[in-house]
Amino acid sequence: MKIKKLAVGPLQANCYVAWDKDGGSAAIIDPGGDPEEIISVIEEEKLMPVVLINTHGHIDHIAANRAIKEKYDIPLLIHRDDVSFLTDPGLNLSAMGFGPLDSPPSDRELQDGDEIQVGEMMLKVISTPGHSPGGICLLISRSDQPDVIITGDTLFAGGVGRTDFPGGSWSLLMESIRNRLLSFPDDTIILPGHGPHSTIGEERQSNPFLT
């Protein structure tokens, strides 16, 4: 299994391309802009995209949805509580001066515990509301290495997601992090929606919002 990170769009959100093996099936997660860069990775690695997933519905994570979906004709997945964000400028923040947004609607509504098959790789949905009502993380279990969690804008290296946007809740965010994410082993790798990667152990010990 391989994961490629691309910092895309004006807010440099992390888009992840995850694939099961060389030339194999791939998931595109949070294409927040610069679709040509994402497509370039797909073509260079000779991958076969099978699914497009949004960890939540803010513009910096969904801005390239249409370009990617139309290029590869793949289903778009987002949690059911963020479905309306895809087409509502007030919810997805495009109305706040971040630029116009034209995302297609979702093809599948996710909920906690759902599993998304990508070739030989499985992504499990962890519902982590707080930054948005339908914020999710994606768990990728590995037999020979520490597990990986793509955390979107729930948990960062040294930080946590904002809760002052529509539908945000500080209490729900803290509950999501403490009860869902911090239940994983310390060596679990986290891949956030912005900034560098970290581990659950590092955040448990040193994240100022959690200590």
Number of strands: 14
Q: How is the largest sheet built, in terms of strand order?
A: 1-2-3-4-5-6
Largest sheet: 6 strands, mixed
Tally of individual helices: 6
Global shape: globular
CATH class descriptor name: Alpha Beta
Residues in helices, as a percent range: 10-25%
User: What is the number of domains?
Assistant: 1
- The H-and-E topology, N to C, reads as EEEHEHHEHEEEEEEEHEEH
Intertermini distance: 33 Å
Class per helix and strand makeup? alpha/beta
CATH architecture assignment name: 4-Layer Sandwich
Mean pLDDT: 96
Low-pLDDT regions = none
CATH topology: Metallo-beta-lactamase, Chain A
**Beta strand %:** 25-35%
Rg is: 16 Å
Q: What does this molecule look like?
A:
With 211 residues, the chain is of the alpha/beta class. The protein has one domain (2-206): 4-Layer Sandwich (Metallo-beta-lactamase, Chain A). 21% of the residues lie in helices and 30% in strands. It contains six helices and 14 strands. The protein has helices at 35-44, 59-62, 65-72, 89-92, 170-181, 200-206, and strands at residues 2-8, 13-19, 25-29, 48-53, 76-79, 108-110, 115-118, 121-127, 136-140, 148-152, 155-156, 159-160, 189-192, 198-199. A six-stranded mixed sheet has the order 1-2-3-4-5-6, with helices on one face. A hairpin with a 4-residue loop joins strand 1 (2-8) and strand 2. It is globular and about 45 Å long. 47% of the residues are buried. The mean pLDDT is 96.
